């Protein structure tokens, strides 16, 4: 990885510009490599917005942006590692990287635009953290509830194994106790 620190090019605030992270493909253990591009904020964009919990705010993991690098939190690094495609790039707006955290003026402006940034994304990804024991049961319960009320046969088939309701409820409770649900934006 590069040791040169990434230099953010200023965004054009007068046209509501944002940066989008172009996450390069790779296997799970490959170093995180990406580019940042500037785009006007609009409602028919081709990026996904990532909603996640920062966790410890101390940047401790290095990622490559072009030929330079930037330090990110463990949580952001973990999310990118899990969300990266093996065979194609992925375009993601992630606040910790797409906003120049050293520029208070830019941070203030971008925070005011957060609702528009999320609304402008073609999809919002909610990263709750890596799987824990019971996570699959909790997701299975959510799928079962959705299938029951949605009446979509293909969804019912995707649930898989029969669900032990008490185990699933306990697993769902553990999922809902994660710090993500206490965030202001949620």
UniProtKB/TrEMBL annotation:
Coiled coil: none annotated. Residues 47-186 form the Heterokaryon incompatibility domain. InterPro entries: HET, HetReg/Transcr_Mod. This is Heterokaryon incompatibility protein-domain-containing protein.
